[in-house]
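Lecture notes, part 5. Sequence design as translation. It can be helpful to think of inverse folding as translation between two languages: the language of shapes and the language of residues. The source text, in structure tokens, appears below.
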């Protein structure tokens, strides 16, 4: 039965019960009222008239008056004859009253009339008794009726009370539980109601919805699985080794190429933490040693790694990509893992080696002819060779300048190729900072004078000796000084300072030139880098070589500079 019909029936039944109880009550109360009214009208009034007639008779007996009163009450009694024999007794009173009017003091008539009135009273009292019994019976029947109908109403009401709320609430509860299950992604949840009411229809709709959700979920799952397979295949077929880590540094995937160069097996690494694998694998150790703890996707590190695999040396550039997501409803990005990609840069490295060798050979080969040009120039300048006029002298000076530059460039290129091939030959020994400084100042003296730049030297007294290759360190100092002179204004000042810093000796060259933009500061030690807009006469190699020289000696090189405020180039070397 439908819930609506059930509710209508239940409420209808209650309504009917109220009607039934009230009609039974009204009917029985009416019956009782009728019975009592019956007694009142038919008998009580007669007793009243009889009493009044007796009083009037007393008055007649005493004063021969009161006939009027008697006659009035007798007339009323005549109108109210209700019991059997009452009419006859009333007739007797009428007859005896007529006789009494003629003879008011006749005691016999008085006695007869009193007897007649008593007869009427007796008849009515019997009637009252009888009617009272009838009323009692009516009340008993009314009680019975009320008890029966109340019992029926009580039983029906109890049945409704017990059944109706649970009939409605139970399916709702069951449905609520099922919806909770669905919300918890238990899509196999179904609801079964036997009845074909509204809840049955609701259950059918719910089941259809759950079925569709299950279907959708399954199809999404299979789609995801296909996508996962596709991505796995893609990663496996990449020519670059790739390793994926989750946020706890556990290995999520490792492609075939990475397995090949590391000599690992997929089943031995996937699911394990990178640290565990690193314990037994050098390559993985070198790959994970500096993985940043947290990242925003921008901190990728590139560095080259040499790997010996497949009987040959290969060079890879490591790139770590931080994978971050923005969880729904949150503002902070969250790191969910990292991907290590190794780019095979062996062909570039090979090309680089070829280029370095080429440069080394060419610069080495060029050195001899340039030196001989310089010698020839010296001979030309010699008066014994013959006099030259002013114009010829100018040409000779210009050739000299160019050949000096050429010699400097070939020297730098040679140094560079030595650095690149790792062939720097250092002769580290005990050296005094003063000697290095003297050597460098001597080399740039002419250049400074030409530009009228004042070199202000400030060296601490009693400086310790240092562990250094004097020639190479002086080369760095010369490079700092020539740059400072080049980028200083005409007649500017350059401060050269050497001081002690704990266990180090600190060399610095400060100029008052245009300074270096912060954008380029980190790049000026890179090879071939020149700040855009600066003098093109250099090679962009000087600072790169300086860095290699100082670092090869275990020192540290750097620069402090602000645009428009000049630059301070410095390096530190350990004391002997
Ligand atoms: P270069 O041979 O071009 O001078 P360096 O490696 O010595 O090569 O210098 C690299 C770049 O650094 C230069 O091109 C120049 O722009 C900048 N630089 C070096 N020293 C200074 C300095 N003292 N003041 C301003 N810029 C400088």
């Amino acid at each position: 039965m439908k819930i609506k019909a059930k509710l209508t029936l239940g409420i209808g039944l209650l309504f009917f019960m109220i009607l039934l109880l009230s009609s039974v009550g009204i009917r029985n109360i009416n019956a009782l009222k009728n019975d009592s009214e019956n007694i009142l009208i038919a008998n009580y009034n007669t007793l009243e008239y009889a009493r009044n007639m007796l009083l009037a008779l007393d008055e007649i007996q005493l004063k021969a008056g009161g006939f009027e009163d008697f006659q009035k009450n007798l007339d009323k009694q005549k109108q109210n004859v209700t019991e059997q024999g009452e009419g006859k007794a009333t007739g007797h009173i009428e007859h005896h009253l007529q006789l009494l009017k003629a003879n008011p003091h006749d005691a016999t008539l008085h006695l007869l009339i009193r007897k007649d009135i008593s007869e009427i009273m007796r008849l009515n009292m019997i009637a009252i008794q009888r009617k009272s019994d009838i009323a009692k019976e009516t009340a008993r029947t009314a009680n019975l009726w009320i008890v029966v109908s109340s019992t029926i109403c009580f039983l029906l009401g109890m049945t409704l009370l017990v059944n109706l709320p649970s009939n409605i609430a139970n399916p709702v509860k069951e449905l609520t539980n099922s919806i909770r299950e669905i919300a918890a992604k238990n899509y196999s949840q179904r609801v079964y109601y036997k009845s074909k009411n509204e809840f049955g229809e609701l259950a059918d709709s719910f089941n259809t919805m759950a079925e569709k959700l299950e279907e959708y979920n399954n199809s999404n799952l299979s789609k995801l699985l296909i996508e996962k397979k596709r991505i796995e295949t893609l990663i496996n077929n990449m020519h670059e080794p790739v390793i994926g880590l989750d946020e706890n540094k556990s290995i999520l995937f490792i492609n075939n190429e990475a397995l090949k160069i590391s000599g690992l097996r997929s089943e031995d690494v996937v699911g394990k933490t990178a640290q565990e694998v690193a314990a037994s694998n050098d390559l993985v150790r070198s790959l994970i040693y500096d993985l940043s703890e947290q990242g925003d996707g921008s901190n990728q590190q590139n560095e080259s790694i040499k790997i010996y695999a497949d009987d040959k040396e290969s060079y890879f550039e490591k790139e770590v990509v931080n994978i971050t997501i923005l969880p729904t409803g949150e503002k902070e990005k969250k790191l969910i893992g990292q991907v290590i990609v190794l780019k095979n840069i062996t062909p570039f490295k090979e090309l680089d080696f070829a280029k370095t060798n080429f440069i080394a050979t060419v610069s080495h080969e060029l050195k001899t002819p340039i030196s001989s040009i310089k010698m020839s120039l010296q001979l030309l300048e010699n008066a014994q060779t013959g006099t030259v006029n002013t114009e010829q002298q100018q040409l000779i000076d210009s050739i000299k300048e160019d050949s000096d530059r050429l010699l400097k460039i070939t020297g730098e290129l040679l140094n560079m190729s030595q650095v690149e091939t790792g062939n720097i030959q250092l002769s580290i020994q005990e050296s005094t900072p003063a000697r290095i400084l003297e050597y460098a100042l001597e080399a740039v003296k002419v250049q400074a004078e030409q530009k009228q730049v004042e070199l202000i030297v400030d060296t601490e007294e009693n400086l310790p000796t240092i562990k250094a290759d004097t020639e190479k360190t002086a080369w760095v100092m010369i490079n700092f000084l020539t740059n400072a002179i080049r980028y200083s204004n005409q007649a500017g000042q350059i401060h050269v300072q050497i001081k002690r810093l704990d266990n180090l000796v600190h060399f610095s060259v400060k100029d008052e030139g245009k300074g270096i933009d912060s954008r380029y500061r980190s790049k000026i030690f890179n090879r071939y880098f020149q700040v855009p807009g600066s003098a093109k006469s250099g090679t962009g190699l000087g600072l790169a070589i300086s860095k290699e020289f100082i670092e090869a000696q275990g020192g540290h090189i750097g620069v402090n500079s602000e645009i428009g405020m000049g630059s301070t180039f410095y390096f530190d070397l350990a004391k002997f």
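The translated text above is only one of many valid answers, since several sequences can fold into similar shapes. The pocket of adenosine-5'-diphosphate is lined by residues 479, 483-484, 487, 511, 513, 516, 524, 529-531, 534, 538-544, 567 (CB under 6 Å).
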